Every structure is written in C-alpha cells, then in structure tokens.
C-alpha cells in the first residue's frame, strides 16, 4: 500500500526507539522525510543514521525534553528552518516511572507526569499545528494508554494525564478540522518493552515458571489486563498503526481513539 508520504516531513517525538522508531521505519520505507526527537543525542543520532542508511531517506535527529517548557518549541522551530514544513506529528513520549496509588505519589510526582505526559503533547501540537495549517493541513497522532480508560490503581498520575491526552486529541480534531488538521489517538495496552521483558524475567526466576506462564501472570495478575491474544504487543505492531494514521490513506479518519491492546474487556 502506498501511504502517500513520499518526500513529506514527519516529526516524531520518542523516535529513537520503540513505537516511535517503528512508525518511522514504516514511513521511511515509503520515502518520507523524518525529524526524530529524543532526550538522548547518541540514541537519536543512531536512529536517524540507521533510517537514512537502510531506506535512503532524509532523516535527522534532534534533542529536546518534552517536560521542560521551551525545548519543544525551540526544536520544532529548528526543524522547520532546516527541513521544511511538517506534514505530520507523532508524539509517543510519556513518563511512567513516577507512579503509584493516590496515597503513594506526592505533588512532585503529579507535576512530573503533568509536564511530561500532558504538556509534552500540548507543546508539540501547539508549535506544529500552525505550521501545518499554513501549508494546507496535516495530521497529529498522540499516544494515550489502555489505562486512560480502564482504572489502574498503581498508575494514578500517568493514567489521569493520558485521559487528558484523549480529550486534547478530540478537541484538536473538532477545532481544526476545517483547517485541514486531522488528529487521532492510539491507546496501547501492554507491550514488550525492555521494562515489561524485565518484569517477565523476574517472575520467571522468582516463581520458577516458564516464560509463557510468567507472561500470563504479569498480564493477568499484575497488570489486571487479560487479553484475547495472550501476549504483550510488539512495538512494530503499534508503529504500523501510527504510520497509517499519519498517512494520506487515513484521510477521512479524525477524532478517533484507537485501542491496540490484543483484545481486552474494555
């Protein structure tokens, strides 16, 4: 399928690894130009170089911390100056380390999640949307989470901010549709990240069970997230969805909140 992205520029926050990088690969395979943003200079330069070498496209790495006011705005301005006007924006970043029950987390933890999860999205959209509107339109893809719509007692700040991202996305879609802006939100369930793989290994060792059983225990008993497919997702599976939403093939899709979670009860 031709995604209609050739020679168009896409900005990806969280583009050095995981879902963001996997989405970048799909776009690059169809000839898109890519501006990847991460907190780590070494990681983002390696990711951009890998895309350029593998797919023969223009891919550049930029450094910014979405949780710090001014950094996103500055990096998007630099991207526009050096690479041109973006056609699409994908935000996959979001703090997950400072979480717990409402009794466990303090104001600083809530503030950290607010800045990184919610305001990271707000700043990226606020800086990018006017550029796309001036050039005739574009698309925004945000990342919320399964926990934004299904209560998780150990993720109070994170889940609350991800719920706000869903509302933000719907507002962008409704407000700027006539300006040519589409906005959709992806809600991943449990994915096979480094952190999840580590927790599976811990259960496998501590309980002397197979990796398959350790995975079931983590998904069902710990995460309280039994899924029809019985496994965590792969980053590439989410990346393909995100790339499609960014593409011209999704031209009539906006304001959608899409679960990619292996089939939950939600």
Automatic annotation (TrEMBL):
Residue stretches spanning the membrane: none
Coiled coil spans: none
Gene3D superfamilies attached to this UniProt entry: NAD(P)-binding Rossmann-like Domain
InterPro entries in the record: NAD(P)-bd_dom_sf, SDR, SDR_fam
A Pfam family hit: adh_short_C2
SUPFAM superfamilies reported for this sequence: NAD(P)-binding Rossmann-fold domains (SSF51735)
Family under the similarity heading: Belongs to the short-chain dehydrogenases/reductases (SDR) family.
PANTHER family: 3-OXOACYL-(ACYL-CARRIER-PROTEIN) REDUCTASE
Record's protein name: Short-chain dehydrogenase/reductase SDR
Organism: Hyphomonas johnsonii MHS-2
């Amino acid at each position: 399928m031709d995604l209609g992205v050739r020679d168009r520029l896409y900005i990806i926050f969280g583009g050095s690894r995981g879902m963001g990088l996997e989405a970048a690969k799909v776009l690059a395979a169809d000839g898109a130009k890519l501006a990847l943003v991460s907190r780590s200079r070494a990681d983002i330069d390696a990711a951009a170089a890998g895309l350029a070498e593998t797919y023969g496209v223009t891919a550049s790495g930029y450094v910014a911390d979405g949780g710090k006011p001014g950094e996103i705005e500055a990096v998007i301005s630099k991207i526009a100056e050096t690479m041109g006007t973006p056609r699409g924006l994908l935000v996959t970043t979001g703090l997950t380390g400072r979480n717990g029950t409402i009794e466990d987390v303090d104001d600083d933890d809530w503030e950290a999640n607010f800045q990184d999860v919610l305001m990271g999205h707000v700043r990226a959209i606020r800086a990018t949307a006017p550029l796309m509107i001036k050039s005739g339109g574009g698309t925004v893809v945000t990342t919320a989470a399964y926990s934004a719509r299904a209560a998780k007692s150990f993720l109070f700040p994170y889940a609350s901010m991800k719920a706000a991202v869903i509302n933000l996305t719907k507002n962008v879609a409704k407000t700027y549709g006539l300006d040519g802006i589409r906005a959709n939100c992806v809600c991943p369930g449990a994915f096979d990240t480094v952190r999840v793989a580590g927790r599976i290994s811990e259960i496998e060792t501590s309980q002397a069970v197979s990796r398959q059983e350790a995975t079931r225990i983590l998904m069902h008993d710990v995460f309280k997230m039994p899924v029809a497919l019985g496994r965590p997702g792969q980053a590439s599976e989410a990346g393909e969805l995100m790339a499609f939403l960014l593409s011209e093939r999704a031209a009539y899709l906006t304001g959608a909140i899409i679960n990619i979670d292996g089939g939950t009860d939600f």
